[in-house]
Amino acid sequence: MNVQVAIRRCIARCAGYLRLSVSFFSKYQNFIDMTNPLKKQHRRWKALPLIFLFLALAFPAMTQVRISGKVTATDGSPVPGITVQLTGTTTGGSSDATGQYSFSANIRPGTHTLEFSGIGFRSVRKAITVSGDAVSADAVMEEDVLNMDEVVVIGSSLRQSRKQLGNTVNSVNAKQLVNTGSGNIGAALQGKVPGAQITQTSGDPSGGISVRMRGTSTIKGSSEPLYVIDGVIVSNSTTNVTNMNVNAGGSAELGTNRMADINPNDIERIDVIPGASASAIYGSRASNGVVLITTKSGKKGELKVDFGTSIITNSLRKKVYISEYGKQFGSASLRLGNISNGPGNTITYIRPDGQERKLSVDLVDVTRYDYQDQIFHTGLGTDNYVSISGGTDKTKYYFSGGYYYNQGIIRNTDFRRFNFKTRVEQIINDYITISGGIAYTNSFSHEKPNGNVFWSPINAVNITNNIYNIEERDADGNLKNVEPTRVNPLSVIEDMELTQAVSRTISDLQVKIRPVKGLSIDYILGVDNFSQEGNNLIERYPYIAAQEGLGYVSSALVNSFLINNDVNISYSTSPGNFSSLTTAGFNHQYQKITGLFNEGRDLLNGITTINGAATRLDPRYSYDQRQVFGGFLQQTFGYKNIAFLTAAARIDGSTSFPQDTRTYFYPKLSASWNINEMGFWKDMQRSWFSSARLRASWGLAGNLTGIGTYDRFSTYLSGSLNGIATYNLNTALGNQLVEPERSSEIEFGTDLSFLNNRLGVIFTVYNKRIVGNSLLVDRVLAPSSGGSTRTENVGDLTNKGWELGINAVPISGKDFSWNVGGSLSRNKNLVTSSSQVTPIALANAAGSVSVILAGEPLGVFYGNYFERDAKGGIAVDSEGRPIAALDAQKVLLRRVLGSPHPDWLLNFSNTLAYKKLTFSFLIDGALGQEVFNADRRTRQGVGIGDYSEREIKGELPRGYIFAVYNTEEWRVEDGSYVKLREVSLSLELPSFAKFIKSSSVSLTGRNLISWDSYDGYDPETNAGGNSSVLRGIDFGNVPIPRTFQLSLRASF
């Protein structure tokens, strides 16, 4: 049947669909209008997705043919998991554990092409001739360490062969995400993405994960990549709803980011686009890279049940040094003490226990304790998972459920998560496929204050002299106090109740239309909706405490709603030796976030609600919403399989942009040259040099996150004057000219394979820079302006570097195989211009030592330092005490002390398999960065650190700690580390029942060893959380635990 006849029949049959679409669109339009008080000037764009959705063409069926065969490796062994697809259609299947595959297709008699593809193998195309109702075709797969024939995800519904791309795309499969010892997909990615610095910012069971790809590229906005799950843009926000977690300086972003809601067991693969090459697809949200997550779905075949269960233990990997020397200077007890305020210029008396005594600097005997033993313990956990999947030629289904529970190494902390997921795909006919999915998460956590405050468990230990028995209680069973105005560390553990609950749903509806050969129309409607509730309770203390001694209670609720509409249209054709792929798309996104916060102080005895607080603070409410809309056009030309050229452009708009420049243009160019496909290469027949490819790409992308929804406007705050209600101008003034940050990135690379594709080398060099002075900062204003700050585009920032990846298969046989992988990358971050010559200090509770300074990396440590002697060593006075550097006016000098950005990132992995036994390990590290160790100074200042012990013993001169205490150079340490991140040993069990298809048991260790010279718990942690600029700060953060996980998996 020709196309014209099909189109005429389509027109006759789609009137009903159009009437339905008008009704549905009217309801959808009303919903958007009700929830969006902003201008409706883009309303005409919203009709496009639904027009495409209901252009479902009902083309006639053809002859049904059964296609089957077997897929084997070069050594004859079966290869499972190979995708078999009839080219030009969505029809296909996959090979099972025995290598067999089969599926049915409605096709015309004649010659057709099957394509066999899978991770780690070169694609194979086989021609089949259809003349009856069945046809058989076998395939032999050759290994390919570079995966050049692998089809990777590059957009919401867009996929291309890796060999066609001019940019880097890193892929991680499902096997690499299990047996990692972590229930967080961010942590599971550590050491598996070249050039990505993935940091666990806290050792809490619900601690956040920070991901930086090719450096940090913003100050105000987020440096986290964009996350897309099954084509749906989702939130990875870090929102504090437990008030005690916030940074006292107001700049850190501590807490759980929302990728913790995703169950790693549900993931099929992850594709990571690290640079601005994703600009054509995602425009103003692509400057930090894109993480594209594909979840599992049903496959044709009989019903399959996968089950997994595990036991988890978490323990403290390393204790910091706490002095146990039985002496100290001065009184042995300061409990309930205070300083005498009598006459005189010097302090001479204290009043411990109410009795006035002279200050003493003599050595006295004390009993010391190691409080780490009281606040840490071995946490237990479990990870349970079950899925049901299967399907027919027309219908495929996948259902799963999971329960994850993990206790933290801090007592009374834990994280509990329930996951439920379903995905169904229905083939309507040869041209229309509809699928939909719903993933629901419910999580709950018990937390403690985490870093940046002196009443967190770690800092309560650090700042308390360890001469008290903190387990001692009064007659009523209450814990006793310690230092004046300090909190007993066990009071934090027992009496501070911080809880957080999250309920989240991610859902999507997708329609794929293939009306004619080469043409595809895809529509995706996606919704990400979650509520996050946090509650704090600190009951009244029986002693004077540093924080909320009279009691405190708070409640916070954040609701986030994000809806996406995507339409992508692609047309591919291959005239002769040439190929063409044209893709156009449109996206509309609407997001609304509301927040409500209540708190009260001075609780009545026995009352734990806000209504029972004697002092109730005014409730706070926030409302934030924005729309993003845009369209793109991308064209790829190819010549044979030798060369590919891609040009693309996107126009993006947002309600956050200035009124006069509501849209921005983001172009892209890329090229790929597969040298090994040329005739001269094939004629050489050199097995030692198997393939070679050159690639290049350039793109311009944006970062919308740096602009607040209302940064364009000057707002007012409520107040009063002489009892009359007033409004006062907010000190943060609006800026109608503020624009999104724009980054330009160019990358060149080569992909080489050797020794019959057993050794692969991938090398990329890149230059990424913020252009047009578009770097966003909150600029400090003159008092005459009427405000204190204003968001402005005032600077540039660059990240230059390279990435080297190596993959090898030294041995591949039926009984034994050996796979090796590794990467090494280097990035140099630099603020190339700024509106201010003097450093811009970044406030945080550990001290304003992180700054923005032109000519230096972002967030470098800048502070006072020691004087140097003639040999370059630290200068000391006549008593041997270090001397701080001063200028001629005796003012402390300051300089750059170090950078939190690593010079090198590395990882190395090994997998050895012998018959049914598999052993693997992963090493990754970061070298060349510094850490600002605020905890070190605290411990020394109260007399429990190693240096203070040496001073008490007389090994250091009296006054040594006083001399170094306020010198910031003393707190900056080498933060380099190399970690044994993962070790796993698994065994496939023999079949002991017919209904069990396969089963295995595995033991996994995580964060087992860290090779570093760091004085604190762990140089990897960061009290700045996910902040773009506060990096490498250790101030009371929970250390990352050592984890063991014993797992059992089975398939039925």
Automatic annotation (TrEMBL):
Annotated membrane-spanning segments are 47-65
Q: Which UniProt keywords apply?
A: Cell outer membrane, Membrane, Signal, Transmembrane, Transmembrane beta strand, Transmembrane helix, Transport
Residue stretches making up the TonB-dependent receptor plug domain: 164-290
What does UniProt give as the signal peptide span? none
- Annotated SUPFAM superfamilies: Carboxypeptidase regulatory domain-like, Porins
Name a GO CC annotation attached to this entry.
Answer: cell outer membrane
An example GO BP is: siderophore transmembrane transport
UniProt topology in membrane = Multi-pass membrane protein
What is the superkingdom listed in this entry's lineage?
Bacteria
Q: Where in the cell is it found?
A: Cell outer membrane
Homology family:
Belongs to the TonB-dependent receptor family.
- Protein known as: SusC/RagA family TonB-linked outer membrane protein
